[in-house]
Structures are given as structure tokens and as C-alpha cells.
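can u pls check wat happens w/ NAP
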Amino acid sequence: MKKAGIIGHPVSHSLSPLLHEYWIKKYGLKAEYLYLDTEEENLGNRIGELRTSGFVGANITVPYKEKVMKHLDEISDEAKKIGAVNTILVKEGRLFGINTDTEGFLENIRETIPGFSFERRRAVILGAGGAARAVIYSLLKEGAGEIWLVNRTKEKAEMLAQEFGNNIHVETWGRLNKTLGGADILINTTSLGMKGKGKLEIDISPLPKKSIVYDIVYNPLETELLKQAKFQGNKVVDGLGMLLYQAVPAFHLWFGIKPKVTGELRKLIASRV
Ligand code: NAP
């Protein structure tokens, strides 16, 4: 029996077990996907167990996406640049760390808006946390023309701009509307708008009608930001697809099958968020 699982603390809220168990059943695999709730002092031991206890790999979630890196044998360039590992592959006793959020983020928009390309586009990103790093990496990889970072703590956005390069600019939260007029896409990577977190109170009326609004928050599925965007006629992309598509490369690496993201799966996961 092959094993995989999710390592974090806590992990009981995670949707990854439901998602991977769905595919395990669908493809008739002899495998199981476990909740591996791990206290910080046991992280090293837990990662060590992956080498020796029949695991093909694991997902890593909050708060260990950075902390796990020192326990691994190899880390992909992409995960190094993003500064976080969300997936481990075990191969011949060695542990490889990768980050699949880029693929999740990009596949989701490709599926929702077929033919969309970031090439030479102007993007505004709200937030400068871990998710923003994966989104910036994705946009640069896809040839975005200009990226504006707007974050409550401006210094964090400035640090990211310095780290990721020239065509990244920073604007203060209070002057967000100055960046919206020429934007092709607005992406929310803050936790605002998520159930139990604060409200994302912004006015997106300066955004051109042809612009896209992408909210990576998926709980609720239709955030206030997406409601506002739909109301004023913008195309929208929600965050659930990113969650589903980031799991595809992990499953593929572990079990050798590229699983399908279907309407049925989307419905199942949406019913649990
Ligand atoms: P993080 O590293 O903690 O960053 C949080 C970001 O939100 C920071 O930019 C922070 O600004 C901002 N923020 C938090 N509270 C705020 C407030 N009251 N006012 C203004 N800004 C505020 O978190 P993360 O890992 O980047 O995750 C962010 C969100 O993305 C979460 O909701 C997460 O669930 C979601 N996410 C979704 C997916 C998916 O698959 N769809 C994947 C990854 C993450 P400061 O810098 O000023 O603190």
C-alpha cells in the first residue's frame, strides 16, 4: 500500500485528504492519503519517516512550508525562488521538495478563461505574503509586462519588488485606485474576504470592463470582491480551481497518473469549503 499525506499543524481543516482520496478511489489505486498533524518539535522526525515508512510523498501546509526546506535533500529552483515547498516526492530514499502553487494558479485561469495569456499584460496584485510570491513567480514566468504590488505593509511589497526584479512596482494601499485604470488583471492574494478574516473593502470601479478579477481566496467560493467584479461586468476567476490544480502535479508524481479535475470533483470540494 502506497502512502501519502498532509503535514501541518493543524491539518484537520485541510481539503487535501478528500481530494486525493477521491482520485485514489477513482483510479482504483492501492494507496492511502493520511492526515499527518505534526507538532513543530516533531517535524524533523516526521519528515525522516517519509524515507522509511512506505511513503511516496507528502503535502506540506501551514506553518511548515518554509521550515520543511532544511530537512530535504533537494529543492526545485521554482520552490527556492518562491521560498516555500508544498509537496515532497520520495524517490529511492531521497526527498525532493517542489512548489505546485504556480501550476495551480496558472491552470485555473487557463481553464476559466481559455486563451488568456499574461504576456505583456499589466497586473495589480493585492498582498505580499507567501501566496503573492507564487503568483508573482507565475506572472514573471508567463511574461507579464508590468506588475503593481499593493500591500497593507508597504515595506513587505518593496522587499518583494527588490527580490523579483525591475518590472515590479509598489503602490500604497490608499492609492490602489491609481493602479486600476490601466490594469488587465487584478489578483487578490491577501487573506481578506476569507470567512473569519476581515473584509476586503476596496472600490474597483476604476478597473476597465475588459479586465479580469482573480481572487485566490476560495472560502467563500464567491467572495465580495468577485461579486463586485461580476456586478460591474468583469470576468472573474475564483480560488477553488487553484486548490484543485495544485494537487494534480503532486498526485501525478506520486502515483504516475495525471488526474482529472472534473465538475464532479469541484462540486464535492465546493460542498466542504
Ligand atoms: P500570508 O503569507 O499570511 O499573507 C497574508 C497577506 O494578507 C499579507 O499580504 C497581509 O498583509 C494581508 N493581510 C492580512 N490581513 C490583512 C488586513 N487586515 N488588511 C490588509 N491586508 C491584510 O498568507 P498567504 O499564505 O499568502 O495566503 C493568503 C490567502 O491566500 C489565504 O486566504 C489563503 O487561504 C489563500 N491561498 C489560496 C490558495 C489556493 O489554492 N486557492 C493557495 C494559497 C493561499 P501584511 O503584509 O500587511 O500583513
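Residues 101, 104, 127-132, 151-153, 156, 189-192, 194, 198, 216-218, 239, 242-243, 246 surround NAP (CB under 6 Å).
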